[in-house]
Amino acid sequence: MSVSQIMELLKNHGLKITPQRVEILRFLQSNRIHPTAQQIYEHVLSKVGSVSFTTVYNTLHTLEEIGYLKKISINETTTIYDVDTSNHGHFVCRICGNVYDINYRATVNVAGIVERTELIVYGVCTQCSDYLQRKG
Fold first, then answer.
1. What is the value of pTM for the model shown?
2. Do the strands 70-73 and 79-82 form a parallel or antiparallel pair, or are they unpaired?
3. Cβ within 8 Å of residue 94, ≥6 positions away
4. Spatial separation of the C-alpha atoms in residues 96 and 101, rounded to whole Å
5. Kind of pairing, strands 89-93 and 120-123?
């Protein structure tokens, strides 16, 4: 997503265009790593030089409200953000902490309309598993 596209997205949703918001969106688009708010804050601070954690958090909340990203709690203390809002799950490695997208198909029989499903699988990723086997 180019800077002009980012500016258009903000404008279309009635949001003020600020260097901080533009950098948050640039980071989310170019770093599909399921970042935490802290990781986003540290990046934006290094690029823009002037930003509060509250600004980052509030911007993420706004982006979630307009449907641009999903906020996912992966445990009691860690929340990640994902700009891929399609129906997919996440695999969380208990060793390295990396989060990977996974595809799944769910059949849900409920009285009502399903708006969102979440699947979070916890385990050991291939890289960590290989390392543990070599370590012996």
1. 0.88
2. antiparallel
3. 122, 123, 124
4. 15
5. parallel
What are the pLDDT digits (tens) for 64-114? 999 999 999 999 999 999 999 998 999 999 999 999 999 998 888 899 988
Secondary structure class of 9 (helix, strand, coil) = helix
Rounded Cα gap, residues 33 and 25, in angstroms: 13
Quick count: other Cβ atoms within 10 Å of Cβ 51? 23
Per the document, the length of the chain is: 136
SS (H, E, C) 19-53: HHHHHHHHHHHHCCCCCCHHHHHHHHHHHHCCCCH
Q: Which of 88, 118, 117 is nearest to 101 (CA)?
A: 88
Distance of CA 103 to the CA centre of its chain: 16
**8 vs 13: CA distance, rounded Å:** 9
